[in-house]
Amino acid sequence: MIDAAEIISAGHGILFVTLDSLRYDVAQDALGSGLTPRLAAHLPGGRWERRQTPGTFTLPAHMAFFSGFLPKLPQPVQPTRLWECRPPAFKTVPAETFLFDAPNLLAGLKAHGYRTLCVGGVTYFSRETPLGSVLPDMFDVDRWRPEFCSPHSDSTRHQVDEALALADACNKQPPFLFVNVSATHVPHGHYLGSSTDTAASQRAALAYADTHLGRLLDGLKQHGTWLVIMCADHGDAYGDDGFNGRGIAHPAVFNVPYAAWVHR
């Protein structure tokens, strides 16, 4: 069990990575095929948990995440939540859960002295539209450039460079560092030299991102102990039962990879 309340009370860093649109079965296949060795070295037990997302596309999933609702296990009994908004008086919350008395996690962490940092990926973090400003507005600092977005074949390298720079600059306050990895979001067919997006090309995108995510994890060690949460916000259907895309009630969309650990 991770004692998030103790970790945050101690002022340790928090890294939250969302692998945008990454299906659970694709993540598992890449792991089993040895295509993600850097992640395999860090995942608890060397595996992903299969969890179910609270949202079927980027915006509602992240709104839920930042409100305290991370993906849940597909079972009746759930593990202790990492964080939760202060509930009504009649509800009892385990001591290991970080309670924030604020409308969202980011505001709650700010009240505890954290500096909240966002490295955007998909266009919901781009500020190119009014809707694309909703999520970035929650953070103290947000960064997005076109080369962070999925059409760019080296997006994760650019995102990790930015994330490490932000962490290096955050000397006086504990950081909450959020990275939305866009490489696994469509379009990713170009990782297989194709214009068609498939589960295979998403697997290739994850294999590409693995090296840079490993570099991110290695680079953060110089800043002490971190609570790391890594998951997908939702999956994508690629013709499964005739369905394509996201925002639909299909297992390929609901089932996401999840992992959390203390990183030293």
Automatic annotation (TrEMBL):
Q: Write down the Pfam families for this protein, in alphabetical order.
A: Sulfatase
Report the InterPro entries cross-referenced here: Alkaline_phosphatase_core_sf (IPR017850), STM4013-like (IPR047838), Sulfatase_N (IPR000917)
Residues of the Sulfatase N-terminal domain: 14-261
**Name this polypeptide is given:** Membrane protein
- What is the native source organism of this protein? Streptomyces diastaticus subsp. diastaticus
